[in-house]
């Protein structure tokens, strides 16, 4: 892997909560800081294109994500995305057959102690380097085919369908 291209779209991984109202906003992308703090041994660039909860990502937004990735020369792409509609975005990206694209996110914000963000990012970095071209989802320590996974909202995890 010459360089990892990272596209950020918002989601829980980048959320900032305000205790007084349990309200939130999507903050700066956290992945660059996570990778720098971990001292990774590869080059990466972060392209922040959206700051949305994934429930608010539209078809036009998905096309923007697809077009942004298509325009990048990198063959290895990691996308941070909210978990609720990650599968829908992955299915749109399936048309990009010459790249290895891995979507990941977090079930709790990266700023929270005990967040799954660092673990999911680490799994995604390994997956994007090891997998053949295609689109994948990495969550909960697993690599998923987007056509065979769903988010179980009640259990707050991804599972096979």
Automatic annotation (TrEMBL):
The entry's keywords: Hydrolase
Occurrences of domain L-asparaginase N-terminal (ranges): 4-159
GO MF, one example: asparaginase activity
Database matches in InterPro entries: Asp/glu_Ase-like_sf, Asparaginase/glutaminase-like, L-asparaginase_N, L-asparaginase_N_sf
One family name in Pfam for this protein: Asparaginase
Top-level taxon of the source organism: Bacteria
Top EC category: hydrolase
EC number(s) given by UniProt: 3.5.1.1
Descriptive protein name: Asparaginase domain-containing protein
The species this protein was found in: Marilutibacter chinensis
């Amino acid at each position: 892997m010459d360089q990892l291209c990272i596209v950020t779209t918002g989601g829980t991984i980048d959320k900032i909560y305000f205790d007084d109202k349990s309200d939130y906003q999507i903050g700066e992308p956290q992945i660059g800081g996570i990778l720098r703090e971990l001292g990774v041994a590869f080059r990466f660039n972060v392209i922040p294109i959206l700051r949305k909860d994934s429930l608010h990502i539209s078809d036009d937004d998905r096309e923007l994500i697809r077009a942004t990735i298509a325009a990048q020369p990198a063959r290895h792409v990691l996308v941070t995305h909210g978990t609720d509609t990650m599968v829908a975005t992955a299915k749109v990206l399936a048309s990009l057959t010459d790249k290895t694209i891995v979507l990941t996110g977090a079930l709790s914000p990266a700023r929270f102690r005990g967040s799954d963000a660092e673990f999911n990012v680490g799994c995604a970095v390994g997956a994007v380097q090891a997998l053949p071209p295609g689109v994948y989802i990495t969550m909960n320590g697993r690599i998923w085919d987007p056509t065979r996974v769903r988010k179980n909202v009640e259990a707050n995890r991804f599972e096979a369908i």
